[in-house]
Amino acid sequence: MATIEFFWEPGSPYTYLAATQIGRLARDTGSELQWKPFLLGKVFQERKMTLPAAIPAKAQYMFKDLARWAQLYALPLTMPKVFPVNSMLANRAAVAATLQGQGEAAALAILGAYWGRGEDISQPEVMLQALKGAGLDAEALLEATQTDPVKDQLRANTEEAVQRGVFGAPTMFYDGAMFWGNDRLDLMKAVIEGRIKA
Amino acid sequence: MATIEFFWEPGSPYTYLAATQIGRLARDTGSELQWKPFLLGKVFQERKMTLPAAIPAKAQYMFKDLARWAQLYALPLTMPKVFPVNSMLANRAAVAATLQGQGEAAALAILGAYWGRGEDISQPEVMLQALKGAGLDAEALLEATQTDPVKDQLRANTEEAVQRGVFGAPTMFYDGAMFWGNDRLDLMKAVIEGRIKA
Lengths: 198, 198
Fold this sequence. Notes:
homodimer
């Protein structure tokens, strides 16, 4: 069984879109799915990149584009009151959940809070509610965010992203081949199904 | 009949991909199609943007991504020997052809020469061959590139792109709504067909 690795960042709106689709894509194609939360901000720093939203014309377009995708996927979408957001806590909570095999539930809970409802996920109480709402052990996960194994794993994921050429989120790897963005899910599916080469 | 405006630039690889699809999309949806060549470099200057390929990790990924789309569309793809290219001549020839109602033929000829075969379209003899190969009056078009109406129209298209919020290529407008990129053709189609709102 081939593996899809899903590198994702809570602060990324296209990650929100893709996260709601990738589980089904993996099931439909019989692929194993690995959730890999990482710090996109660190990757941008490393590559001397700026946020796409730093260009005003692009930022203006982006929210319209997101709204179209949200309609297509039938998802709620709210521009967060805090953007960009400090995603350290959310990212660590995601890592903690992933270490317990709850990567998908945590991702959908966190991204839903931030991009679906526009909440400030840098706040512990917001994170508590979001994780609880998904049936996760929210208190334990937030406690785990202060532990070395979780901090180390987030650092390792981020370093791995840099090493493997990631420059945005979400980034998927299928059988080693990299795909960037919600808008490449179909292309990745075409590769998985053997319709095109990677 | 609603109109699709297709803002395109010879030096843009995703424009090559989209240009081969947009004609059919327009026919399938019963839309009028307007070809609008413009100088993407000027728009980048205006918005203080850099080429996407300026980030090494992105450039490396981009060519793989292009190769996947080319497979999907069954198109030839060759990394041009000269990139980025001075697209002034090609852009003016495209404008000249468009003024004579030959916008699609010229676009496919120019983009095919540059991205399909990797030729240096800044050279008049390359442009001559490419336009001739498409059955166009190549000599007349190249002569027209030196005339004021053509120069002015290219300037006007570029200025229009800036004014309307364009920041990349290709950019499509359907009934005033903007869509950026080959990877937004399906989303635009969904809007044209009324499946989602713009």
